[in-house]
Amino acid sequence: MSLHLHPPIPAALEAKSLYLPVMGVSVSAGFPSPAEDWAEERVDLNQRYVQHPEATFYFTVAGDSMVSSLAERSIPDGATLIVDRALSAKHDDIVVAVIDGDFTVKRLYCRGARLALIAENPAYPPIVLGDEQELSIWGVVTAWIARPR
Q1: Dihedral sign for Cα atoms in the order 56, 60, 63, 64
Q2: Which of 60, 63, 96, 126 is the most exposed place for a label (fewest CB within 10 A)?
Q3: Angle at 147 (CA atoms; ends 34, 99), nearest 5 degrees
Q4: Which residues of 102-130 are buried (b: 16+ CB within 10 A; e: fewer)?
Q5: Annotated active-site positions, please?
Q6: Are 119 and 74 in contact (CB under 8 A)?
Q7: Which helix (H) or strand (E) holds 118?
């Protein structure tokens, strides 16, 4: 299955703040720890994850080319990408790219004269552009939100 992105949704158009509670304790990923019944602060996810509101967009991922066995690098089907167009892409960034008019999300490989777009899923080969192909880096993925169920 290839990876496609739904049309972007501008972050700036979703200006209404939604402050969610941030708990004053960390959640143990190992052995359980006692929970506290209060939040120390409230945070707006736009403030936490959107650095440049006028240049930030949300995309919804469709496909499995960015699914990895490493959880911290895995972007599942249905995830929401937060993409900042104000940032300059550099080697190893996850980017939204436009290849011959089609959007894709991949990890940018840029070393010397070699440029490639790399999927996290090893079932997908790297995309190395041919002489006749056109590539544009549309934006840099700064975060993603995925639902575990």
Answers
A1: positive
A2: 126
A3: 140
A4: ebbbbbbbbeeeeeebbbbbeebeebeee
A5: 65, 106
A6: no
A7: strand 114-118
For the chain, what's the residue count?
Answer: 149
What are the residues facing 69 on neighbouring strands? none
Region of 35 please: left (phi>0), alpha (psi -120 to 50) or beta.
beta
96 — pLDDT class (breaks 50, 70, 90): very high
Could you tell me if 93 and 106 are in contact, meaning their C-beta atoms sit under 8 angstroms apart? no
Distance (Å, rounded) from C-alpha 100 to C-alpha 70?
A: 30
DSSP-derived pairing of the beta strands 19-23 and 4-5 = unpaired
Report the 10 Å Cβ neighbour count for 58: 19
Q: CA 79 to CA 5: how far, in whole Å? A: 10
Question: What average pLDDT is seen over the chain?
Answer: 80
Give 139's contacts (C-beta < 8 A, 6+ positions apart): 55, 57, 83, 84, 85, 87, 95, 96
- Each residue of 29-61: pLDDT tens digit? 555 555 555 456 777 888 888 888 888 888 889
Tell me which amino acid residue 3 is.
Answer: L
Structure letter (DSSP) for residue 11? G
- Which amino acid is present at 60? T
